[in-house]
Amino acid sequence: MQTSLRLRRTLQSLHHHRLNLKPPITNHPSPSIIRTLSTTSPPPSSSDAEFRKYVGYAALLAFCGAATYYSFPFSDNAKHKKAHIFRYAPLPEDLHTVSNWSGTHEVQTRNFHQPETIVDLENLVKDSNEKRAKIRPVGSGLSPNGIGLARAGMVNLALLDKVLEVDKEKKRVRVQAGIRVQQLVDEIKEYGLTLQNFASIREQQIGGILQVGAHGTGAKLPPIDEQVISMKLVTPAKGTIELSKEKDPELFYLARCGLGGLGVVAEVTLQCVERQELVEHTALSNIKEIKKNHKKLLSENKHVKYLYIPYTDSVVVVTCNPVSKWKGPPKFKPKYTKDEAMHDARDLYKECLTKYRADEITAKSPENNEQVINELSFTELRDKLLALDPLNKDHVIKVNQAEAEFWRKSEGYRVGWADEILGFDCGGQQWVSETCFPGGTFAKPSMKDLEYIEELKKLIEKEEVPAPAPIEQRWSARSQSPMSPAYSSDEDDIFSWVGIIMYLPTMDARQRKEITEEFFHYRHLTQSQLWDRYSAYEHWAKIEVPKGKEELAALQERLKKRFPVDSYNKARKELDPNRILSNNILEKLFPLSDTV
Asked: Which parts of this chain are annotated as the region Disordered (predicted)?
């Protein structure tokens, strides 16, 4: 299998340079020449030797050209038809391919466990520890960096997804850690309860969303790990242990954001809130207005986020508040219909399709093309637009301008339950980097959050980065979990979270590789110019391990300055001495003293 994978990578690497290869040579030496070369003859003259040398070169070149022609695929619009010489053996039936949602990280494993009961999980952890067999905890696989993936083996709790207990009076629920966020919300709404806050999507398993320190938005609302009242952890060395503020508080706070390295989270008790309807207000603003109203926006809104659009002055401001604050839903009539809001993006797509895909236009009637375009959401249409020329800065700017116009015409109000309103359509597959840094206190914001954005936008324009929209900025209160990027001992501290993005709107391997390289250049610029100055640290589900030794060593030292790495590693040694719960990311970021 490894040989097959290496062969495929080699072919893909060569295919990347397909257009630089010379056309195949089809002229072959005649049979008489071949027979002459292979029979015994008197010593050749110098002219004969020269002739034979050049015939040999011609034969070799012909063979290489033919091999190239038949081995590598042509583009979809090539006039030729490729011949398939190579056939890859199918994967064995017991080999599972597991990838994250964006398709940026993937592993193949024969050991993918899904226990059906807590006893099954406990036996699996015990047996695996005795055999020193890896069982890395993995949730829904949504983390952009694939933090839950491990080729040697994984354990997934999707079958442990029950609500075990609801305390309506205390507003608490006890659940199995494999339950998905949306499933949990649906099951507890009959009790009038919901979660305090939500991330952008709802498909995460509760265990996973807690372990990576995920967050929603709202300067008064902490990251989701702060909702944990108690938890049950299945550990390799100490079996099943129960943790809370009262039972081993130091380990409890450490394990709430434990990155899956201290034990498999089996059960969690969460502090919930009353289910309520929210009013979402979306408006287009600009940097000048944001600066003027920023403190007021943070203090007066339960939830608030900004979506910046690179190469424009546009800022989308989204606020959410309980309906009661408005004395009922606001009366508002939109100025534009959904079709009118989509008009600029659709026109741009038609224009670009003519420029980049003229052959497709002739293959389909204009009516059919327009029908397809009109059925797309904005994020789907944005993906299609970017796919036409994703790294052309001028093209990306046009797409961003169309997005700004879409948001201008989408201004208005929306009313719904919190789990419906607080979600956000993040678009298609993507690379993303999100950093968290201090933003002062709730009573006195430092305004460093806006300074960070201004510098980031200037950096993008100076370096001509083909940066698509949006740059997303959210806020949270502090977390008491020491491994959280938003950890603080001061309960009044607030933190800003800023995410940059590059979409992967195509399945073409070469194009995805080029986008990936450009994204990491983009990320490196922010890292080198901004992170240290603003004490910014990446979200655990989005941090990428450097390939270079020097860069990795620098990252390890940097993490030690912010997080209690020694305490975390000490707990790992005590709870998982054989490191069966670990994977490459944990081993690289938090090397133990005995790691080779």
From this structure: 20-48
